[in-house]
Amino acid sequence: MLAYNFGTDHPMNPARLDLTARLAGEFGLFDRPNVAVVPPRTATDAELETVHEAGYIAAVRRVSAQPDVPDEERGLGTEDDPAFAGMHEASARLAGASLQAAEAILAGTALHAVNFGGGLHHAARDRASGFCIYNDCALAVRHLLDHGVERVLYLDVDAHHGDGTQNIFWDDPRVLTISLHETGRYLFPGTGYADETGGPGAPGSAVNVALPPYTGDAAWMRAFHAVVPQITRAFKPEVIVSQHGCDGHARDMLTSLRLSVDAQRQMMLDVAGLAREVAGGRWLATGGGGYDVYNVVPRSWTHLLAIASGEPIPLTARVPAAWLRYLRERYGQDGPPGMGDGAELWWRSWEVGYDPNDGVDRAVMATRKAVFPHYGLDPWFD
What we know:
InterPro entries: AcuC, HDACs, His_deacetylse_dom, His_deacetylse_dom_sf, Ureohydrolase_dom_sf. This is Acetoin utilization protein AcuC. Belongs to the histone deacetylase family. 36% of the residues lie in helices and 8% in strands. The chain has helices spanning 15-26, 45-48, 54-65, 87-107, 136-146, 163-168, 217-235, 261-278, 297-308, 321-331, 359-371; strands at 112-115, 152-156, 175-182, 206-211, 239-243, 283-286. Helix 1 (15-26) crosses helix 9 (297-308), helix 7 runs parallel beside helix 8 and helix 7 runs parallel beside helix 11.
C-alpha cells in the first residue's frame, strides 16, 4: 500500500501508513484474537467502473504507464495529483482494500472493517482531485448497495469536504452523506455548504456542516452531536461507512482547525456507538487526510483500529519506546510521548441553547434548518 506515493515533497507521504501499522503492531492490535489482517487486492476495471467512467480509468492507466505525459483535464499529473509509474495499480489496490472490507461485512465474517489506507473521498467519476485517484469510499458504498443493503450512511469527518463521495451519490436516496469540515470559503475544495442537500430524487440525502476556521474540540463536538446522531437515527442505515481523515488536528499543515487526537478518538467511539444502535454494529471505517505524518496520523488511526477491534487504547497510554526508536532511526523525527493530547473534551450540548453570535452555532443551525425537516425533525429542538 506504500506504493501510493506522489513523491517525497508531497503532503500525502506514505510514511503515515508505515508508521500507523507499526504503532498498531507495537500495541498488539493485529494479534488480537478477533482481528484478521487481510492483504489488499487490486480492484478490477469492472469494479472501478461502478463509480468511475471507463474513459477516466483508461486515462489513469495511460498516465500510469507514461507519467511524463499528464492528463491535466482529468486531474492527472497536476500539483495535487502528480503522475507516477504504477499509479493505476497503487490506486486500485487502495480501492480494492475498501471493497474487501465491504465484502467481509456483507458475508458476516467481520462486523467492523478498517482500511486506514483508504478514505480518498475527493476523486470524482471522471477526474482525480485532492490527492485522490480512485474513490474507495464510494466503491465500498456502491458494493454494499449492489449486494442488497438498502440504506448506507457515509459519514465524513475529514477537515476537507467529502465532495467526491457526495456527488457520486447526489441523487440516490439510499445513501445519506454527512460531512463535517472546515468551511469551503477558505479551504479546498470550496464546497460543502448547508444548502447542498441532495438531488431532486433524493432531497435531504446530503448533510453538510461547514465550520469556521480555528474551530476547536468543544465546538466541533457540539456540532457533531447537534446533527449526526439525530439524522442517523432518523435515516436508520443498515451499514455505516465512515471516513476518519485526521487533518483537522491543530498540528496539521493544510487546515486551520484546532482539534486534538482526543476529540478524533471520541468521534470514533461515537460512530461505533451509532453503528451498534442503528446498524446492528456493521461499520466500515477508512482513513483519509492527515499530514502531520509523524505525530498525529499514527496515533489517530491506531486509536481507530483499537476501537474497531473492541478494546480502545486509553488516552493516558504511553507511546511504545520501540516505535519511538524506529521513528528516530528511520525518519529522524521525535515522536509524541503519549497516545493523547491531554485535551479537555467537555462540550456544550445543543439543548443548552442556540447562540446567534457564535459562528459554529450559526453553521449548525443552517444545517439543521436545511435538512432536519426532510426527516420530520424540528431544527430548533430535536
